[in-house]
Amino acid sequence: MDYSHMKAQLEERKREIEQRLINNKQFGLERGFASDTRSGELSQYDNHPADSGTELFEREKDMALLDHLEEELEEVKYSLDQIEKGTYGTCEVTGQQIPYERLEAYPTARTVIEHAEQSVPKDRSVEEAVLKEIDQDDNRDTNPYQQAASFNESSMTYDDSSIMEEDEASGYSEEFEPFVSTDIHGYTGQDNIHLEHNLHYDKYKEAYDDAEQEEQE
To answer: How far, CA to CA in Å, does 190 sit from each of 141, 178, 211?
Structure first.
């Protein structure tokens, strides 16, 4: 099969990446990571912490961009090497021919779409495990404060705290607060109060109806 179109595309991308690395001077990372050197200051002693934080963020962004470009360059070089060896377009998992349409869209593809690796960063945030557990529980009756408190080794319930008993699972000082809301302007009158028809609303309405029925009897 003729892969001359892919080869030209890969060679052009290779030149673009190499030129970008030259123009950006490796994103300035060859000068080291010291923020005082980067900013031109002899010392960061008098600088506001926010300035140093911004500089740190920019450096980390530069590192991420550089890593991404270098990885892409390696993939492009690998594909060009495959073309020279005559193995380009062959799935490295199944040995099948990779569809021409897939190679047109993704010239550095090494496998058929069924065996394509998902690009998921390995250095995931440690907080994701906690957030995942909360999502799986899908406990809509628990507010964020209670969700965070549930992961503490020691109790976060103190005298006069906003947390209620565990079985009540609302965390509000008044029964109606979980289903009563206003807009961004806050309380502007009774006509602008919204009622959210959720579990708390149903529970409150049921208790109210029962009390009203008892009064009528």
So the answer is: 25, 17, 23
